[in-house]
Amino acid sequence: MADLLTAAGADRVLTMDLHAAQIQGYFNIPVDHLLGVPILSKYFQEFNLNEDEVVVVSPDLGSVTRARKFADRLHAPIAIIDKRRPKANVSEIMNVIGDVKGKVAILVDDMIDTAGTITNAANALADLGAKEVYACCTHAVLSGPAVERIKNSAIKELVVLNTIPLTQDKMLDNIKVLSVAPVFAEAIKRIYEDLSVSKIFE
Fold first, then answer.
1. What is the pLDDT of residues 111-149, one digit of tens each?
2. How many helices (H) does the chain have, and how many strands (E)?
3. pLDDT tens by residue, 62-99
4. How far apart are CA 54 and CA 52, in angstroms?
5. pTM for the model
6. Is 42 among the catalytic positions?
7. What's the CA angle centered on 199, arms 195 and 202, to 5 degrees?
8. How far is 150 from 61, CA to CA, in rounded Å?
């Protein structure tokens, strides 16, 4: 895909929250990797939650770095869900590392596909005494049973970015969509003005 984009005439790529950062290495042209965490965390900062009443939760071990960056912006502690996946597209909650009882828990992921991981995590947090459970992600794929799972889960609100447009049948009352347009616009402007793109996230 990287070679096809280059052959088609692209001389620079702007992307957001690659599922694996190593993908950048497949390109022979500059790749600017934008992040969704600053947009999502800004939304939750407006809740004005105290540090001792909120916890940012990583739904698996692979998302810990993302959750930590998110938590730093909210000055909040983190918790980690340690899960084992017995087979493809089936997730099993094993253990929650960290204190979630009586707290507002915010699950952070890069992508929600069938929503098995995020809804199992949300339900586990509710069972462990979390006061409210929110979830957020950059890419809302929401395939197969995802919408039904979210509807029937402990998630009070799911906040997603519009990197993938949601069809009307996926627009639940508790799904909030935030736009990535201002960040991409600022990045494009900075590229054309020869300024640092990474400054956007400071």
1. 999 999 999 999 999 999 999 999 999 999 999 999 999
2. 6, 9
3. 899 999 999 999 999 999 998 766 677 666 656 899 99
4. 6
5. 0.92
6. no
7. 170
8. 22
Please give the radius of gyration of the chain, using alpha carbons only, rounded to the nearest integer.
Answer: 18
Q: Which residue has the tokens 């692209």?
A: 10
Given 83, 103, 151, 176, the catalytic residue: 83
Amino acid at 147: V
- What secondary structure letter does DSSP report for 181? H
Euclidean distance between CA atoms 11 and 5, whole angstroms: 9
Longest distance between any two alpha carbons in the chain, whole Å: 54
Block residue for tokens 């620079």: 12
Give every CB contact of residue 121 below 8 A, 6+ residues apart in sequence.
57, 59, 81, 83, 93, 107, 135
Q: Is the dihedral of CA 56, 57, 63, 65 positive or negative?
A: positive
